[in-house]
Amino acid sequence: MKPVFEQVLPGPERSFKVIMLDLPALEGPYHYHPEMELTWVVSTSGSRYVGGHLAGYEPDDLVLVAPGVPHTWLSSSEGQPRQAQAIVVQFDRRIGGEAFWQLPAMQPVDRFLASVSTAVVVQDPLKRDVTRLMAQMPGACETSRLLLLLQILQMLTLAPHLDYLTDDASRYLVQGHDRERFQLVYSYLISNFRRPITLGEVSAVASLSPPALSRFFTRVARKPLMQVVAAMRVNEACSLLRTTSLPVSEVALRSGFGNLSHFNKTFRNVTNCTPFDYRQRFTGP
C-alpha cells in the first residue's frame, strides 16, 4: 500500500478546512497533501507516524505537519477510551496570497512555517493555549476561524522552544523515486507489522531483491528494516501496556511478536526496561 494522496477541499466560502473527528478509533491511511496540518488528538492513544518518524502518542497530542509529509495517527488495537476525538486544521501554506505574507507583520510567521520541514510537536504550557483556541474553531464563523488560526501561528512563531521532528529518511533521499519507494515500503510496514513479516514479501512490494531492499532501506532510514519493524511493535506494545490489563504474553502476540522470549528481549533492548517494569510506571504497585 502506498501513501494515499488526500485532496483537501475547504468547502464553499471556506479558506481552509477544520475537521472535528469523533470516531471509535483513529485508523486512517498513511497519507499526504500539499497543505500544512495542525492536529490535536483530544482522546485516545496509540502510534503516530510522520514521514519516517515513529512515536507513541497520548491524549492531547498536538502536532504541526509540513506540506507533503505522509502521516497518520493510529489508535492502539485495544484499550480505553475506544472513542477517539480530534480536531484537524488543514491550511494552504500561502493562505491569503503572496502579498499578505510579504507584510512586515507576517514575515516572522512566514519564516517559522518555512522552518518546519517535517513536523513540530507542541508541549505545555503553549499546548494548553493553542488547544483552547482550536476548540473554538469548529463552531466559529469563517472570519473568526481565520483570526484564530493567525493567532495560533503567531503563538507558535513566538514560542521560545518547540520540538522539531526530524525525518531521518528525508535527509538521505536524493531522487523522487527513492522517496516514493521508501514511503511505499514504510506504509506497508505500518499496515502489517502486527503479523509476521519477511524481507522477501516486503522486497516484492518495493520491486527489489531482498538484498537490494535491505541495502536501500538501511541507506535511507539509517537503520535496518527489521529494526524499524521491531520499533513499531514495541511502540504498539507500550501503548497496550499503558492502557490495558492484558497479560504480557497477549500484548506480545497482538504487537506482532511470535514468542514471549523474543518480545522480552526486544522490549528491553528498545526501552531499557522489562514490560512488567514499564507497566508499573503507569499503573503503580
Summarize the structure in words.
The mean pLDDT is about 85. This protein has a 6-stranded antiparallel β-sheet, with helices on one face. Strands 6-5-8 form a 3-stranded antiparallel β-sheet, covered by helices on one side. Strands 1-3 form a two-stranded parallel sheet. The chain has 12 helices and 11 strands. Helix 3 runs antiparallel to helix 4. It has 2 domains: about 5-165, Jelly Rolls; about 170-285, Orthogonal Bundle (Arc Repressor Mutant, subunit A), CATH 1.10.10.60. By secondary structure, the protein is α+β, with helices and mostly antiparallel strands. It has helices at about 100, 105-115, 125-135, 140-160, 170, 175-190, 200-205, 210-220, 225-245, 250-255, 260-270, 275-285; strands spanning about 5, 15-25, 30, 35-40, 45-50, 55, 60-65, 70-75, 85-90, 120, 165. A hairpin with a 2-residue loop joins strand 5 and strand 6 (about 55).
Give descriptors for this structure.
285 residues; single chain; 2 domains; Jelly Rolls; 45% helix; 3-stranded antiparallel β-sheet; alpha+beta
User: How many domains make up the 3D coordinates?
Assistant: 2
Question: What is the alpha-carbon Rg in Å?
Answer: 20 Å
The major β-sheet equals: 6 strands, antiparallel
Q: Name the helix and strand elements from N-terminus to C-terminus, one letter apiece.
A: EEEEEEEEEHHEHHEHHHHHHHH
CATH topological fold name of the largest domain: Jelly Rolls
Major β-sheet strand ordering = 2-9-4-7-10-11
- Overall shape: it is globular
How far do the termini sit from each other? 43 Å
CATH class category label of the largest domain = Mainly Beta
Total DSSP E strands: 11
